[in-house]
Amino acid sequence: MSSAASPEFPITDAVREALAVSLRGTQELLPEEAWVRKLARSAATGQPLRIKLGLDPTAPDIHLGHTVVLNKMRQLQDLGHQVIFLIGDFTSLIGDPSGRNSTRPPLTPEQIKANAETYYKQASLVLDPSKTEIRYNSEWSIGLGSMGLIQLSAKTTVARMLERDDFTKRYAAQTPISLHEFLYPLMQGYDSVALKSDLELGGTDQKFNLLMGRQLQQEYGQEPQCILTMPLLEGLDGVEKMSKSKNNYIGITEPANSMYAKVLSISDELMWRWYELLSFESLAAIEKLKAEVAAGRNPKEAKVALATEITARFHGAAAAAAAQEDFERRARGGIPDEMPELSLSGAPMGIGALLKAAGLVPSNGEGLRKVEQGGVRIDGVVISDKGLKVEPGTYVLQVGKRQFARVSLKA
């Protein structure tokens, strides 16, 4: 590795440690040798490196899958480097076509503004706000004007754009590609020029756009940034990437009890993947824990530790402890302290209809199936009569281990 740095910037143990932190859980770090040189220069001169992450505020909420990249930003931030959280308020007006087989409708300025405010507030649960530089790419993008945009477009070719996988597939399939979509990677790349970025992070689906930043920085006479891509986190099912549309996600602002219980629901195999990408424990500590489980320690203990760490990160240690207590109470058949409360009318009401009205099952038929399977309780008592008519009163309804509702039923 010593040949990777200039003689005046030696590879110290601190540089090696910084490289190890950079590589943890990473899909690709390109080019690694250049990143080592940057780390060595920073260590020798005391000048922090500029680490850029751009996010288009396309949705108002962040889930754990989004935090994989944010966690890496925080690790680099803790090493003393300058983190730049770039909100793509201008690029959102174009619409990122990455990984898509059709044009994505752009957002309105009002949607972008509302989403951006929520995005940064939620991202601050991972990043250190006092050490984070917040920028909006409209700062320099609007000022480019039509002449600047034409000059920027001259920095690359259509052939280069068609190297991008999704553009290639759409072109081959004769699926329309709008000219404005070519502007997206150009504008994202120009962000790196404007910010003089040393490293840009993104998901694996952003690799082309990140490399465009390197190309444009060279065109503008800057030292090109390195790029670091992070893998996409598998969701609760352990198969598909975490996604709201697939309902296999954990939102970072959802209640502590729900967050804790969902982490505990993942498979033992997926747990280690989540440890690598979501935990702030050292790799040595994780390997030690994995060895203990392999030697016979109950894997649930490791999962409890992960659930506690993640819940405490977003809700605090006290809430994480309370969530653990709540989960254990439910596992013993107990009733949680907090649950949805609602008032309904129509008593006496059939048990299937009541469960549906309480939002615990999607249909009367599903409610009756749950009764048949012994998965329904009223005030802690298992219900076995599918013909039950529930009289007026206030009840705690339970379906399975984790679904509860307190219902006041009136005639």
Automatic annotation (TrEMBL):
- Per UniProt, the enzyme's principal EC class comes to ligase
PROSITE patterns linked: AA_TRNA_LIGASE_I, S4
InterPro entries, per this entry? Answer: aa-tRNA-synth_I_CS (IPR001412), aa-tRNA-synth_Ic (IPR002305), Rossmann-like_a/b/a_fold (IPR014729), S4_RNA-bd_sf (IPR036986), Tyr-tRNA-ligase (IPR002307), Tyr-tRNA-ligase_bac-type (IPR024088), Tyr-tRNA-ligase_bac_2 (IPR024108)
Per its UniProt record, what Pfam families does this chain match? Answer: tRNA-synt_1b
Location (main, coarse): cytoplasm
UniProt keyword terms in alphabetical order: Aminoacyl-tRNA synthetase, ATP-binding, Cytoplasm, Ligase, Nucleotide-binding, Protein biosynthesis, RNA-binding
Q: What is this protein called?
A: Tyrosine--tRNA ligase
Organism encoding this protein: Inhella inkyongensis
Name of the gene encoding the protein in the UniProt record: tyrS
